[in-house]
Amino acid sequence: MIELFSANTPNGKKISIMLEEIGYEYKVTKVDLNNSEQFKESFKKISPFSKIPVIIDHKNNKTIFESGAILIYLAELSGKFYNFDERLEINQWLMAQIGYVGPMLGQHHQFHHYNPGKSKFGEERYFNISRRIYKELDERLSKSKYLSGNNYTIADIGTFPWIARHEWHDIGLKNYKNLTRWYEKISKRNGVKKGFAFMDKNEVPPKPC
Ligand SMILES: N[C@@H](CCC(=O)N[C@@H](CS)C(=O)NCC(=O)O)C(=O)O
Predict the structure, then answer these.
(1) Separation of alpha carbons 209 and 108, rounded Å
(2) 130, 122 Cβ separation under 8 angstroms
(3) Are strands 54-57 and 2-6 parallel, antiparallel or unpaired?
(4) DSSP state letters, 130-171
(5) Smallest CA separation from ligand 1 atom 2, residue
(6) Measured in angstroms, how far is the CA atom of residue 41 from the centroid of ligand 1?
(7) Parallel, antiparallel, or unpaired: how do β-strands 26-30 and 2-6 relate?
(8) Which residue CA neighbors atom 6 of ligand 1 most closely?
């Protein structure tokens, strides 16, 4: 049994989607970020930077923080969505998501969605970077079926929940036809639908607009 410590955010959804995709049984323990539960001493013991997601694999007695490390762990354990021969490509697209796509879109959420009007510089900077990210992902997907190649992998699972926040981004996902094709295909997967709704059973990936 895997215990998933999470919140209903893009980083949180990556792991519920992965667990649904590999068909593992799991229990969700909600960490209420709005009530600062991430800073509790008990949570810091398993998450040194006070961030979700974290998993405890009770069967194998392992605790893992950082979504990329968790995705790799679950992929290796299940033998799914991370094949050895393609790992260099998969690692690059996964690390780009962890180090660039997620943090930059996250800043765009902060300035454009949650705190508009507070910093013109911040709003413009992260809006522009987010537009670049849409274009760069679209370019990649014009040459490749999925991010790391022909197969759906943990790189796609890591990136999908961030693009699923496209309504907040105000960039117009539907104008990026390759990214839209990828997004719509992944949205239809059963594991993705279930993992997306892990904290709100009515939540579905929003249609491209
Ligand atoms: N690099 C981390 C980022 C995780 C992260 O930023 N989690 C956010 C929620 S999406 C969080 O826990 N924020 C709480 C805080 O920073 O206080 C990962 O990929 O796991």
Answers:
(1) 18
(2) no
(3) antiparallel
(4) HHHHHHHHHHHHHH-SBTTBSS--HHHHHHHHHHTTHHHHTS
(5) 66
(6) 17
(7) parallel
(8) 51
Closest CA to 13 of 52, 50, 44: 52
Minimum CA distance residue for ligand 1 atom 13? 51
Q: How many residues does the chain have?
A: 209
Contacts of 180 (CB under 8 A, 6+ apart): 173, 174, 208
Question: Which residue positions in the chain have pLDDT lower than 70?
Answer: none
Q: Which amino acid is at 174?
A: K
Q: What is the pLDDT of residue 172?
A: 98
Mean residue pLDDT of the chain comes to 98
Cβ(148) – ligand 1 distance below 6 Å:
no
At residue 5, the pLDDT reads 98
Residue 206 phi/psi, 5-degree rounding, is -65, 140
**Tens of pLDDT along 26-58?**
999 999 999 999 999 999 999 999 999 999 999
Tokens 């929003």 label which residue? 206
Name the strands in the sheet holding 62-65, side by side, starting at the edge strand that comes first in the sequence: 26-30, 2-6, 54-57, 62-65
Give per-residue pLDDT as tens, 110-132.
999 999 999 999 999 999 999 99
Tokens of 82: 């991370």
| Res 26: pLDDT | 98
pTM assigned to the model? 0.97
Report d(CA 96, CA 91) in Å as an integer: 8
The token pair that represents 49 in the structure block: 């930077």
* Phi, psi values for residue 140, rounded to 5°: -60, -45
